[in-house]
Write a structure and sequence with these properties.
Elements (H helix, E strand, L loop, with lengths): L22 H11 L5 H22 L23 E6 L12 H8 L7 E9 L6 H9 L11 E4 L3 H4 L15 H21 L4 E6 H5 L3 H9 L7 H15 L8 E6 L19 H7 L4 E5 L19 E7 L9 H19 L3 H5 L2 E5 L14 H18 L5
Parallel strand pairs: 3-4, 4-5, 5-6, 6-7, 7-8
Antiparallel strand pairs: 1-2
Helix pairs in contact: 1-2, 6-9, 11-13
Protein name: Cobalamin-independent methionine synthase MetE C-terminal/archaeal domain-containing protein
GO molecular function: 5-methyltetrahydropteroyltriglutamate-homocysteine S-methyltransferase activity; zinc ion binding
Pfam families: Meth_synt_2
């Protein structure tokens, strides 16, 4: 990837992809699952609600509009179950999981098995995109010259690796090593990105809670104590960086790639992991070949802005200083100051003027509003107010810029 600043996308005001589903859509989805509504009827309702939410986003000043993830049950969608060599299982033992992974621990503490468990059962092969039709409908709702702005979110390539203990992510008679397994994962993402690109997609955001786990002392301690692990946590983080970079082999220069380091966004607005970006900042910012980082900075659990001193001058950071989890409104002037404070760190780290550093920055809610279809502990008006606030912050800091 050439070291040049890729912008528009990203834009000064961004959101993270998922938006609250209207109650009517939720009701029809539940009825469909119960066999009371046909798939055709469900699709018609999804189409209408997606059309409406795209219009809402554009009216609020968000060119990187998404479909709200309205066709998905959870944020990661259907990429892995759609690959040959993966299948969803319902009968499994919990000892296959890294029980110290924050999301797994949360499920087990609540007395539940981790949901939507997908396992590698054979050689992995991309056999058709489960995302491209979602993007095509999204693209059909805007003028042709705006399609390049639209955003689609993808599951992290490490999603069904980190959650499983050493030896459980794939059968040893199928893949002899992580490198071999990751190689086919990367090829699958290369194929997916090409299909999306050919459909007109130019803006992709990977949602990755796993990378944020490497900021968590609780996770790191568990990883160190796990006798099955053959790598250190730092080794594993480096392997994930390489996996991502391999996914981008052959990526066209005009395709924007971002990654959101999620701290968790579950029922009741629950978060999963804590810890500043300090210990992963250098490798994250300097070795991961993405254009943009969407970082959560709404609470103290994400630490301070100091790690941003390692952000290179050819990359963007979208600062999630506004929470999507609760309706309480942040003070706009305080949030503007935080954004400028973050830019000062970038400026100092690269020895550049503040104005130039601010050019690498945007603002957003810290996460989506509905990573799972039931959504966060915030109502529709609360979500709209948050999106308006983010746009106002951006307008004040970067006047007349999208």
């Amino acid at each position: 990837m050439a070291p040049e600043l890729h912008q528009r996308p990203p834009f000064r005001a961004e959101h993270l992809g998922s938006l609250l589903r209207p109650q009517n859509l939720l009701d029809v989805k539940i009825a469909s699952e119960a066999g009371k509504v046909s798939e055709t009827e469900l699709a018609a309702v999804e189409d209408k609600e997606i059309t409406d939410i795209i219009k809402t986003q554009l009216e609020l000043g968000y060119p990187a509009a998404s479909d709200g993830e309205y066709r998905r049950h959870m944020f990661w969608g259907t990429f892995f179950p759609g690959l040959e060599g993966f299948e969803e299982v319902t009968d499994f033992e919990t000892d296959i999981f890294r029980t110290y992974a924050p999301d797994i621990a949360a499920f087990l503490e609540a007395g539940h098995k981790p949901g939507e468990t997908v396992l590698c059962t054979g050689k992995i092969k991309h056999v058709g995109s489960t995302y491209v039709d979602q993007f095509k409908y999204l693209a059909s709702q805007v003028p042709a010259d705006q399609v390049k702005n639209l955003k689609i979110t993808l599951a992290a390539p490490n999603w069904y690796h980190l959650r499983y203990r050493e030896g459980s992510a794939y059968p040893k008679d199928v893949y002899s090593s992580d490198e071999e397994y990751f190689g086919d994962i990367a090829k699958a993402y290369q194929a997916e990105l090409k299909i999306l690109y050919d459909a007109g997609c130019r803006n992709v955001q990977y949602d990755d809670p796993n990378l944020a786990y490497f900021c968590s002392e609780k996770f790191l301690n568990g990883f160190k104590e796990d006798s099955l692990n053959v790598y250190t946590a730092d080794d594993m983080f480096e392997k994930y960086i390489k996996l991502y970079n391999d996914c981008f082999i052959g990526l066209p220069k005009d395709m924007h790639i971002g990654v959101h380091l999620c701290r968790g966004n579950f029922v009741g607005s629950r978060h999963f992991s804590e810890g500043g970006y300090d210990r992963i900042a250098i490798k994250l910012f300097q070795e991961l070949n993405v254009h943009t980082y969407y970082l959560e900075y709404d609470t103290e659990r994400a630490g301070g802005f100091e790690p941003l001193k390692h952000l290179p001058i050819h990359k963007n950071v979208i600062l999630g200083v506004v929470t999507s989890k609760f309706a309480t409104m942040e003070n706009k002037e305080e949030m503007k100051k935080r954004v400028v404070d973050a830019a000062k760190i970038i400026a100092e780290g690269n020895n550049i003027p503040l104005e130039k550093a601010l050019n690498q920055v945007g603002v957003s809610p810290q996460c989506g509003f509905a990573s799972h279809r039931e959504g966060n502990a915030i109502d529709w008006d609360g979500m709209i107010n948050k999106l308006k606030l983010v746009r106002e912050i951006a307008n004040d800091i970067w006047p007349n810029q999208l």
